[in-house]
Predict the 3D structure of the following.
Amino acid sequence: MEISNVKIDWAPILEGQIKYLEEIYPDVAIRETYRDIIERLNENKIKSRIILNGITVAGYAFVMESSLLSDRIYGSMGFTDSAFASDVRIRNLVEWAENIAKAQGKYLMINEIFRAEEASVKLLSDIGYTRVRRDRMEISLDEFNMKSENYPQEFEVLPITNTTYQEYSKAEFDAYAGTLDSILFHTTSEADRFSMAKAIFNGSYGEIIPSASSIIRHHGKLIAAILATTKPEKQTDGSRSLITDIFVNRDYRGNGIATTMMINCLNRLKYLGFETAELWVTNGNEAAHIYEKLGFKPSASAKEIFYYRKP
């Protein structure tokens, strides 16, 4: 039996998923985030569906709009026990969420389906979804010993403040267009991309570290940037940093710009007293090889998996 938008206590339903996410992201305030979600689910302020096995909740789903990207909604789905995860039930939850997205003229982004990842991979692929995996990589700055490098004279290296939200968002979007990471951006709305850049600069991913962040111009054109921030989660000792963004215009790739930016950034972070630096990279992105050569190593557990299918 399937029931949509029923008034029910979501806390015990989501407890298993919360514990799973806490194991993957020990430095993120997962439970605090879900406390707000559960409260809104309990008040029917978030569209939801449950699948019953007798009187037991077997599966569940809820959808939430993106706060920054107006072209999509996010679907979270899972099962209270892996034994309940069948193709029929997975398809039921997915189709329910798809109908909501379609009614709003948006496309659906599906997070990793809890306790059904293996069962859902083929099913979602068969109905046209693309699977994306992003991994966290980390480096110990105590062990980083590469010397800072100089850029060619024709490149102008400037503080990260020497740009505007609009210019930065356009340069970033152009750099990522056609890559595996292009799905992270709104493909048609400049306003949404502007809002994303503004959120980053205003600290949504942590406080910007100005001396470790920079942009590069060539004949006045913004061609590359690197943005380092403090860790925004439960981290309190200030020892960990995050490479929030790094990009190079496609016409300038293959010249070592990304490597030089990263080396100089890491040296600056080390000088400032940070012990580690982290970044996220999409599986299949060739940039991962650059990071590995610099000493970054994949995190043992931290990963992000989602599926998408554009209408």
Observations:
- The chain has a mean pLDDT of 92.
